[in-house]
Amino acid sequence: MTDLLSKFDPYIAEHKGLLETGVHDPFGVVMERVMSPTRAIINGRETILVGTYNYMGMTFDPDVIAAGKAALDNFGAGSTGSRVLNGTFAPHIAVEQALKDFYGTRSAIVFSTGYQANLGMVSTLAGKGDYIILDADSHASIYDGCKLGNAEVVRFRHNNVEDLDKRLGRLPAEAGKLVILEGVYSMLGDIAPLRELVAVAKKHNAMTLVDEAHAMGFFGKHGRGVYEELGLEDQIDFVVGTFSKSVGTVGGFAVSNHPKFEILRLVCNPYRFTASLPPAVAATAEASIRKLMGAEAKRDNLWAVSRKLHAGLKAAGFRMATDTPESAIIAVLLPDQESTVAMWHQLLEHGIYCNMSRPPATPAGIFLLRCSLSAAHTLDDVDTIISRFIAARDSLPGAKAA
Amino acid sequence: MDRPATYARLIELIEPFNKKGIALAESTSFADDLELDSLTVMDLVANIEDEWDINMPLNILPDLETVGQLADAVVKLKG
C-alpha cells in the first residue's frame, strides 16, 4: 500500500528540524486566555497581540457580545442548514441589510467564511470560455476559486498596470473577463493602484472584483475600502469582504449593485452546499458592522498606532516591507527562515505575538515578521512593542552589543 | 513558429533559474531536475509570456513537466 501521506515527508522533516532548534512552533501558538483585542496569555505569559487582523478592536465590544448572547438565546447554537434550505434565520437577513447599508449597495450575500466568499465568487462568476486575470500575489482563496471553476486563468505581475494591460490585450475581445484585485495585499501590507488598474480593466471591457478584506472600516469616507478612498465606487462590479478582521467574528460576504447578483445564491456551491453561519455569529457581525459606521475615533487611532509602529521600527533599524505605512499591516523583512524564526521566538519570549510568514504564503524568497495593529492598541502599547522588538533582537545569538 | 529557435531561446530564459547549473535538455524536468518551486515557475512563465507576447493560462501548467513540453506549448500558443 502506498502511504498517501508520504508525499509530505519533506514538510514533516522541515517542521521537525525547525522545532529541534528549540523554538516555539510558529504554527502552533495557543491562546490560553484572551483578555482583550490586544492581550492574551500565551505559554503562561501575558502577551501583546500584534498579529490578529482585529483592526477595529470589535471582538470584546459590549454591544457586539450582547447581540450574540441574545441571538444564542433566541435562535439556538446553530442553523444546521444551508441558506437556501432551512439555514436562513432573521439574523442572516439582518446582517445582509447591515452590509447593504454599510456599502450602499443593492445586494449583499453572506458566506460562512471569507475564504468561501472568494471561492464561491471566483469559481461561479467566471465559467468555461471566460477568463480570470488575477494579480500574482492574490490570496490563496482566490487561487483556489480559480481551481474550482472552469475559466482560463491568467496572472499579471503584482500591482503592475502595464503588465495587466498587456495580458488583457492578448485575450479575445468578445470573451467574458474578470479582473481580480485586492485593496490591501496582506503579506507586505501594500495597497493597489486601483484607479489605474481598474481603468485598464474597463478599457478591455473586463468586469472587476476587489477583495477589501484588509481595508474595511478604515479606508474611504464610509470605511468601505481602498476603492472608496480612490473614488471608484461606480467602477467596481463586485466587492468581497470578511467578518473575521475588522468586524471581529467570522464569515465572508460579497456586495454588488449588479441587477442579477441575487441569482448567485442559487448557483454558487460554496454558498448553497454548506451550513449557514450560527445565528449568534450573524448577530454579532450585524451589531459590529453598524458600529463601524461612524467609528472615526477608532480609525484615527488605528492609523496613528500604525504610523507610529512603522516609524519606530524603521528608526530602530529594521527593514520594512513598505517605505511608508500604507495600511494597518506593518511587515518587517528578514533574510531567511532561520533568522525569521529565531526573531519570532525571541519576540514571543518578550511577550509579543506577531505572524511569521514565509513562501509560499509570501512572494518568492520573502520572509516576514508581520505585525497588524488594532484600534484597541494605544500609543503607549506601540512604545512597548518597539522596545521589545529591540530587546528581542539584542538577545539573539550573535547580536552586537548595543 | 520555428520550434528549434523557440527551444534555443527558451533555454536562455530558463538558464537564470538553473541554480544547480545542470545541463538543460528536452527531457529536463522543472520539478525533479531544476527543482523549481511553484513561485519560481510563476516568474519564469511571466518572462516567457512577455518574450513571445502570449498568455500561458495557469490551467495548462501542471501538464508541462519538461523543457521540451514547454517548448511545444509555446509553439502551439504562438500559433
From TrEMBL, chain A:
<dbReference type="InterPro" id="IPR015421">
    <property type="entry name" value="PyrdxlP-dep_Trfase_major"/>
</dbReference>
<dbReference type="InterPro" id="IPR001917">
    <property type="entry name" value="Aminotrans_II_pyridoxalP_BS"/>
</dbReference>
<dbReference type="Pfam" id="PF00155">
    <property type="entry name" value="Aminotran_1_2"/>
</dbReference>
<dbReference type="InterPro" id="IPR050087">
    <property type="entry name" value="AON_synthase_class-II"/>
</dbReference>
<dbReference type="InterPro" id="IPR015424">
    <property type="entry name" value="PyrdxlP-dep_Trfase"/>
</dbReference>
<keyword id="KW-0032">Aminotransferase</keyword>
<comment type="similarity">
    <text>Belongs to the class-II pyridoxal-phosphate-dependent aminotransferase family.</text>
</comment>
<dbReference type="InterPro" id="IPR015422">
    <property type="entry name" value="PyrdxlP-dep_Trfase_small"/>
</dbReference>
<keyword id="KW-0663">Pyridoxal phosphate</keyword>
<keyword id="KW-0808">Transferase</keyword>
<protein>
    <submittedName>
        <fullName>Aminotransferase class I/II-fold pyridoxal phosphate-dependent enzyme</fullName>
    </submittedName>
</protein>
<feature type="domain" description="Aminotransferase class I/classII large">
    <location>
        <begin position="48"/>
        <end position="388"/>
    </location>
</feature>
<dbReference type="GO" id="GO:0030170">
    <property type="term" value="F:pyridoxal phosphate binding"/>
</dbReference>
<dbReference type="InterPro" id="IPR004839">
    <property type="entry name" value="Aminotransferase_I/II_large"/>
</dbReference>
<dbReference type="GO" id="GO:0008483">
    <property type="term" value="F:transaminase activity"/>
</dbReference>
UniProtKB/TrEMBL annotation, chain B:
<dbReference type="InterPro" id="IPR036736">
    <property type="entry name" value="ACP-like_sf"/>
</dbReference>
<feature type="domain" description="Carrier">
    <location>
        <begin position="1"/>
        <end position="78"/>
    </location>
</feature>
<dbReference type="InterPro" id="IPR009081">
    <property type="entry name" value="PP-bd_ACP"/>
</dbReference>
<protein>
    <submittedName>
        <fullName>Acyl carrier protein</fullName>
    </submittedName>
</protein>
<dbReference type="Pfam" id="PF00550">
    <property type="entry name" value="PP-binding"/>
</dbReference>
